[in-house]
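Data deposition worksheet. Section B asks for the primary sequence of the deposited chain exactly as it was used as input, without tags or linkers unless they were present during the calculation. Section C holds the resulting structure in C-alpha cell form. Section D is free text for depositor observations; keep each observation to a single sentence. Incomplete worksheets are returned to the depositor.
Section A, Depositor: J.P.
Section B:
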Amino acid sequence: MMRRLLFMLGVVLVVSKPAYAQNPYNLSAPVTDLATLFENIYGPRGLIVDSEATLPGEQSHSAHFNNDFQTNFGKFSTALVSQFVITPLPSPASGFTYHLDPSTGVFQRTTQSFGPILTERAETVGARRVSFGFAVQRFTFDTVEGLSLDQVPAVFTHDNAQLLGGRQDVVTTVNSIEAQVSQFSTFVTIGVNDRFDVSFAVPIVQNRLKVVSHATIQRLGTTNPLTHFFRQSDGEIGNTRVFTAIGEKSGVGDITVRMKTTLRTGGAGGAAVGVDLRLPSGDEMNLLGTGATGVQPFLILSTTVHRVSPHLNASYQWNGSSVLAGNPATGESADFPDQVGYAAGFDVAANDHLTLAFDVLGRYLISAQRISIEDFHALDGQSVYPNISFSEKSFNMLNGAVGLKVNLVNKLLLDVNLLFALDNHGVRDKVTPLIGFEYSF
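Section C:
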C-alpha cells in the first residue's frame, strides 16, 4: 500500500501560473509569491502618486504614501492559511471497521454506521485492513471578522506626515479581495493490528487570489492639484486610480500523518488517543501550506446506542514558526498560532446503505492575528475615514457540519458534506462543500 501511495505522489502534476500586478504604467510587473501579492500591488516602491510640484530649491517632489495594511498584508495571508489548519480534512478513518473474532478467525464489522465525515470515532480500521479515500473541498472566502472582503478600507498617509502642509493629504483605498481555494485530499489508513492504525493525508491545493484596490487622493493640505495626482490614460490629471494584482498557484499542501490507538472498545463505548503530525510540505510563500510543523495529540470518545453513534473529540495543536506568521516580504519568521480543537456530534445509520452525520466543530486560536475596523482621524482635525488595523488576540471559531455517507456498491462509499460557519470570527467561508469517496479492502 505504501508503494501505491508513493506512486500517486510521484505522478501528481503541479501547475503554477504567474501572478501580475497591474496599473496604467506597469501592466505586467510579475509578483513572484501570493504571500506578498498586496505588498507589490502598487509596484516595487509602494504607493507613489504623480506630482509636478517642486520643493524649495526646485527639487523634484516624489510623493510616497505608506500604510500598515500594505506592510502587514502577510498577516492576512496568515489568517487565510490558518483556515487550512482549522478546517478539518475528511476523516481518514474507514467507514467500515472490523474486529477479528478469535473464536472463529473471521473479521466482523464493529459498527452499523459508516461513521462521521469530518470528525472521528474511537474504532480503528482493523488488523491488516486498508481504507483508501479521496475528497474535494471548495473554499470561497467571504468575510474577515464579519467585514465583507469586497469592501476592505485602508488609508495611506504621506511619508513624514508630521511636517503638515501638503503632507496632510491622504490616499483612501477600498480593497476587494477574492480568495478561492480548492483542496483535493487523498488519504489512506492501514490497520497495523486491531487496536492501532496509521493514516496519511496528502492534499493538493489550488489557490486563486485577486486584489483590486480603488485609490482616491484626499487633498486635505493642498489646493494645487499638481502637488498630488494620478495621471489618467488620456493624459489628464485625476484623483483616482485602480490597481489590480492576480495570482494563481497549485501544488502539494501540508501532508498529515496520523497514528491512532484504541484504549477501550465495546460495552458502554470506546476511547482512543492518537497524534497528528503535520509536515510543512506546502509552499508557504504561495499559501499552499503553513510553513510550520504541527503536532496535535487528540482524544476520542464514542459509543453506539442502537443505530445512533455519538462522539466527542478534543485536541491541542502545537505549531512551529513560519514566515507567514512573521514577515513574508523580509523572510522573518514567527510562531504560528497554537490551537485547541474540539468537536461533538453523532451519526445515524438510517439503513444498511445510508448514514447521516451531524457535527459541531470548534477551534480556539491562541494569540492569533485579528483584523478590525477603526476610525482614521486625519491631521486636518476634521476628516475621518474607515481604516483597517491588525491586533494579536486569542479567539474562538465555531462551525457546523451536516453530511451523509451512501454505500454505493460492495465497500465503496460516497461522502457528501456541508461545513458552515456559526460565527464570523477570522477569515470565513460561509459554506464549504465536500464530496468524496472511500473504499475499504
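Section D:
Helices lie at 2-11, 68-71, 73-86.
Residues 2-440 form a domain with the Porin fold (CATH 2.40.160.40).
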